[in-house]
Specification:
Blueprint: H1 7-10, H2 14-26, H3 31-37, E1 50-52, E2 60-62, H4 75-109, H5 121-130, H6 140-156, H7 170-179, H8 186-196, H9 205-235, E3 243-245, E4 255-261, H10 264-274, H11 277-285, E5 291-296, H12 297-307, H13 318-323, E6 329-332, H14 341-346, E7 351-354, E8 365-366, H15 374-388, E9 402-404, H16 410-418, H17 426-434, E10 439-443, H18 455-466, E11 469-473, H19 475-483, H20 491-495, H21 498-507, E12 512-514, H22 521-534, E13 546-550, H23 556-567, E14 571-574, H24 584-598, E15 601-604, H25 608-625, H26 640-648, H27 652-661
Parallel strand pairs: 4-5, 4-6, 6-7, 7-8, 10-11, 10-13, 11-12, 13-14, 14-15
Antiparallel strand pairs: 1-2, 3-9
């Protein structure tokens, strides 16, 4: 019989622990309990065998060395096909997000999208340059329409290359062309993978995975990058602002609307509607003191970045928010939405509302979103929530809410490091070259209820900071660090090593940079490209002392992100078990072959300490290859605010000697 974990074994987050105990006391099911009751299938997971379901001569289970499927497919072919199909599904999901944003921009440009307008004309013109679109003499609306049409065309493009491929370092572009993986069109590459993995098609593991890499690049340098860039155009390019995160952001005396999913088009309109005086008065007429919005998952990151709307937490907080009894409506669009939510909502008073034409869930209310009537639909949803406020029962809201500072777009990092007139990545490169910053780690990805929520993210981030590694984060990983107070400037004084602390003191930046939602991993690609182009750290992403991590991953989108990062030259390490562990050949291709051909690789490591060790080894290897000094923290830490604090702790007569006599 499977062991039932304690609340502490399920999550390191105090708020989550409190509500997990409440769930157990009420006899409520959660993802944590279901994970305890249902062990992962070792064959489906890829550790003890492989399952092929690509035709109906099977499904075929491969559990012995030398065993093949009915068609003769080997374990390596099956593993490669399974991985490729997962990458294609993840690429399709993220890229479809970009498609929807492009259509919204087009409707806004044509004056047919209620409530939307271009909020960042500067970003619009920067994107126009990438597409080779002249801007002189054009109105914002005309330019936005042309850019939207260009972006939409790339989804169905059949030949050539995607426009944003030109944003990568020149050396990287040449490698993609040489290896045959420069993406042609977004939808074409997804279809290509599905075709080549159909029964009787591609049966060479490396060749199958080559197609998967091209598909992933069509997402990273195509669909997801379109989503990020055009969201900035429509809703504004993020810059730092103070926000709050965790379940304590829910209010016991206001109408709580929780926004969950991934697309900012709906959530931005609900933010607008909920601030209208008429609807605030409507909420008060129902006995509430106002309307409180909170996000979950990547919708949370989108509105946190741009609007400062509080986050109720990451992926595994979605059920726990309902268990507070304080949520009048949970409004969802696409991706990472558990089917258990409507049944759980029915145990309380919560209205569970689906909105996407792509997503309906039995037991929920469906109010279909249409950008042409966006604000009216948002107002309707807010009214439904307000009407539900008098139906509340017992409310239990944890007293846990932590300040954080999100909003570090690559544009803002440029400004932060160099100022208005000399915006540049030069200070970051110099800090790495001098050894103040040992390297950079991108810790991203999901939560997974089979491991302790946030534990891996938390341990790894703290260890990297101690070792002067700058951490950038997106998605649920960023919210995990936010809940722990690591995404503030003050965190550098407590958690950063001496060199990183100096850099944070000088710039005022947190030691952990929250860069956005999962699609915003493309911002990390842009940052790495700018670092390579700035000079001093090689001339390609593969030269930079940097590592990508997904320690608590669970979705196909994570595999797509990992694949496009590896194809872009990064060392990427996933936690948990490997879905291709049973195939030594596929494991070798993703590690040795990809590193030889592209400079990047994708590894699976099941424990945090090994993941940490391998990350530092890779960073130090890249430093050595660049001829940079060995990491030596003893050379730093005596400057800036910390040194002044040390001086002020001395006797008064000594302070004068130190400050004016050059004693220290």
């Amino acid at each position: 019989m499977a062991k039932k974990r304690t609340a502490e074994e399920r999550s390191i987050d105090h708020a989550s622990q409190q509500l997990l105990i409440r769930a157990d006391s009420l006899g409520l099911d959660t993802a944590f309990a279901r994970a305890d009751a249902m062990p992962a299938c070792p064959i489906g997971a890829g550790s003890s065998g492989l399952c092929c379901k690509n035709c109906f001569m099977g499904p075929c289970r491969i559990t012995k060395e030398g065993q093949v499927g009915v068609c003769g497919a080997t374990s390596s072919t099956i593993a490669a096909r399974n991985m490729a199909r997962a990458i294609a599904a993840g690429s399709a999901a993220h890229s479809d997000h970009g498609r929807d944003v492009a259509f919204t921009l087009l409707a806004a440009a044509e004056g047919e999208a209620q409530g939307y307008q271009v909020r960042d004309d500067v970003k619009l013109r920067a994107v126009a340059a990438y597409y080779g679109v002249p801007t002189a003499g054009k109105t914002t609306a005309a330019l936005a329409k042309e850019i939207a049409q260009k972006a939409i065309t790339e989804f169905g493009q059949q030949k050539g290359e995607l426009a944003f491929v030109k944003r990568a370092p020149k050396k990287r572009q040449d490698l993609w062309r040489k290896y045959g993986i420069a993406p042609r069109g977004i939808d074409r590459e997804v279809v290509d993978v599905l075709h080549r993995t159909h029964m009787g098609d591609d049966q060479h593991p490396e060749h199958i995975l080559k197609g998967a890499l091209r598909c992933a690049l069509a997402d990273g340098w195509g669909g997801s990058m379109i989503a990020t860039e055009l969201s900035d155009v429509l809703f504004g390019t993020p810059s730092p602002k103070v926000g709050q995160v965790n379940l304590g952001v829910l209010k016991d005396d206001e109408v709580n609307i929780v926004l969950h999913g991934h697309e900012p088009t709906l959530s931005e309109m609900i933010v607008a509607a909920a601030s209208e005086p008429e609807l605030i008065e409507y909420a008060k007429s129902k006995g509430a003191n106002g309307i409180n919005l909170a996000g979950i998952c990547c919708t949370s990151n989108e509105i946190l970045l741009r609007q400062g709307v509080a986050s109720a937490g990451n992926f595994l907080n979605q059920e726990l928010a309902l268990i507070t009894g304080a949520v009048e409506a949970m409004v969802v669009d696409v991706q990472c939405i558990m089917q258990a939510l409507p049944n759980l909502a029915a145990k309380f008073h919560t209205k569970f509302i689906t909105t996407s034409p792509k997503v309906m869930i039995q037991g929920g209310m469906h109010i279909e979103f249409d950008e042409h009537r966006a604000l009216d639909i948002a107002r309707q949803i807010v009214r439904v929530a307000c009407d539900n406020y008098p139906n509340r029962g017992e409310v239990v809201i944890p007293d846990d809410a932590q300040d954080l500072i999100p909003g570090f777009s690559h544009e803002y990092i440029n400004y932060m490091l160099g100022g208005s007139f000399r915006a540049s990545f030069r200070p970051l490169n110099d800090a790495i070259m001098s050894g103040r910053i040992r390297g950079v780690v991108a810790d991203v990805g999901c939560n997974n209820p089979r491991v302790t929520q946030d534990k891996s993210h938390a341990w790894l981030v703290r260890e990297f900071l101690k070792n002067d590694v700058l951490v950038v984060q997106t998605g649920c990983g960023a919210l995990a660090s936010g809940k722990l107070g690591l995404v503030t400037g003050e965190a550098a004084l407590e958690h950063a090593g001496p060199g990183l602390r100096e850099v944070c003191e000088a710039t005022g930046m947190p030691p952990v940079l929250h860069m956005g939602s999962c699609v915003d991993n493309t911002r990390i690609l842009t940052v790495l490209t700018q670092m390579a182009q700035e000079g001093g750290l090689g001339d390609d992403i593969a030269d930079i002392p940097a590592v990508g991590l997904a320690p608590e991953w669970m979705s196909e989108k994570a595999l797509a992100i990992g694949a496009y990062a590896a194809a872009s030259g990064a060392c990427v390490i996933f936690g948990l078990e490997s879905p291709v562990e049973y195939s030594d050949e596929v494991t070798r291709v993703m590690d040795e072959v990809w590193e030889k051909e592209l400079g990047g690789k994708l590894l699976f490591v099941s424990d945090d300490e090994t993941m940490f060790k391998k990350s530092l080894e890779h960073i130090d290897k890249k430093r050595a290859a660049l001829g940079l000094p060995e990491y030596d923290p003893s050379r730093f830490g005596r400057s800036g605010d910390q040194r002044m604090n040390d001086v002020l702790a001395l006797p008064l007569e000594t302070q004068a000697d130190v400050m004016y006599g050059g004693v220290r």
